[in-house]
Write a structure and sequence with these properties.
Layout lengths: L1 H15 L11 E3 L5 E3 H14 L4 E8 L2 E12 L4 E2 L6 E2 L3 H15 L9 H4 L28 H5 L31 H15 L3 H10 L22 E2 L5 E3 L13 E2 L1 H12 L6 H7 L4 E2 L16 H4 L2 E3 L4 E3 L7 E8 L2 E8 L4 E7 L4 H13 L6 H4 L4
Antiparallel strand pairs: 1-2, 3-4, 3-15, 4-5, 6-9, 7-8, 10-11, 11-12, 12-13, 13-14, 14-15
Helix pairs in contact: 2-11
């Protein structure tokens, strides 16, 4: 009888207790300059900024010392049914895929299954234009003598000379716009081409390979290169600037350039494991994040614009293997990757000296408007080249 009377009292006491941070998370975040912001202050700031810029939904995760210290979800994953964004919701990560794919490629290099510096034309068992999906788009490039000099390294650090995608060319065919290896020009086409090389050598689809090598070992349960039915109850739809539905998030074919769906917490797991040497060996990580090309262009997009600027050189802007790099900042070196698509705007950055990271995923065409305020206010990142990224007004 006494036990029965105590149960309501115990329940009441539990409800009166203050909410505790979820396991593995702290009550404050250490900024890059050593100052701190409380989790409540970070949440208030994020909610205010995301609301101000009409970002339909988003997730933010922060790592200090390689450990997840703060993670929150905001807004809606499905506006039509008023479903909230959750930390477990999977969103289209878009081009953040490229960085994760780059790490997988380094696993192959470690095992001697791929050379970064052997020409792609020699790595493929048949000429590029003999493949069905390249029969038309590669009909010109295979006759360009410079084609034989393109390597996986050039595809990963965006120095191949290819445009972002062949579909953006006037004739919708692949062309080389400069001598491979001579300058930077972002190319999703190049990452998809490297995917072909990998799949031909492994005789398996990329989604299976990356699931087996990275997502499953790291328990990235909300991540996949293709659509999976297990996501159906908790997936973010995508919205435009007017917050109207653009489409549902479903990629049925793996693309090294950007098909991955994920969550901020899953990408935090990846970043933590990568910096700890649990994805690739320390020597491989050093090569992954070594500056392969210095960048002095004014803007990253449009990709072939050669206008020069001073913002990038001031922070040692460069590109490694699938990752952008800041090699000279007062907070030490950093690696970063953006993700941009219709109704998906994302960014992640990690400062390697202290292993501090911030990951932002959104399901909105307004996401990038909020990035600078969020990164500066929560992480204290004042060194990202905002104009080069296109995140400055």
């Amino acid at each position: 009888m006494l036990l029965l009377m105590r149960k309501p009292l115990l329940l009441a006491l539990v409800l009166l207790l203050p909410a505790l941070p979820s396991r593995g998370q702290e009550t404050s975040i250490r900024r890059l300059d050593g100052t701190t912001i409380t989790s409540d202050e970070a949440e208030t700031l994020a909610r205010t900024v995301l609301t101000k810029h009409h970002v339909t939904g988003g997730q933010i995760a922060v790592l200090n010392g390689g450990k997840l210290v703060w993670s929150r979800a905001f807004g809606q994953r499905d506006r039509e049914h008023d479903l909230p964004m959750r930390p477990s919701t999977t969103l289209w990560a878009a081009s953040i895929t490229k960085g994760v794919f780059g790490a997988y490629v380094m696993q192959l290099v470690e095992r001697g299954e791929l050379s970064l510096d052997e020409p792609v034309a020699r790595l493929l068992p048949q000429p590029l234009d003999h493949y069905e999906r390249y029969r038309v788009t590669a009909s010109e490039i295979v006759h360009d003598p410079r084609w034989s000099s393109i390597t996986p390294r050039m595809l990963l650090n965006h120095t191949s000379g290819l445009a972002n995608f062949a579909t953006l060319e006037p004739d919708e065919k692949m062309h080389l716009h400069f001598t491979p290896g001579s300058r930077f020009a972002y190319s999703g086409e190049g990452l998809n081409l490297l995917q072909l090389v990998v799949e031909e050598r492994k005789h398996r689809p990329l989604d299976e390979l990356m699931q087996e090598a990275i997502f499953t070992p790291l328990k990235m349960d909300r991540t996949s290169m293709i659509w999976e039915e297990r996501f159906i109850e908790d997936v973010a739809d995508r919205y435009g600037e007017d917050e109207k539905l653009l489409g549902h998030t479903r990629r049925d074919h793996a693309r090294g350039a950007g098909s991955m769906t994920s969550s901020a917490e899953d990408l935090a797991r990846f970043a933590s494991a990568l910096m700890a040497g649990r994805v690739i060996k320390p020597a491989s990580l050093k090569e992954l994040l070594a500056p392969g090309i210095r960048i002095d262009e004014l803007k990253q997009f449009p990709t072939l614009d050669e206008a020069k600027g001073t913002e990038g050189p001031a922070v040692g802007l460069a590109y490694g293997l699938g990752w952008g790099l800041l090699t000279r900042t007062r907070f030490g070196p950093a690696f970063f990757k953006e993700g941009h698509g219709d109704g998906a705007q994302n960014f992640m950055i990690c400062f390697t000296r202290r292993r501090d990271c911030m990951i932002i995923l959104t399901n909105s065409d307004n996401g990038e408007k909020a990035f600078r305020e969020l990164l500066e206010g929560i992480l204290g990142d004042t060194v990202t080249p905002w104009r080069w990224e296109g995140y400055a007004p």
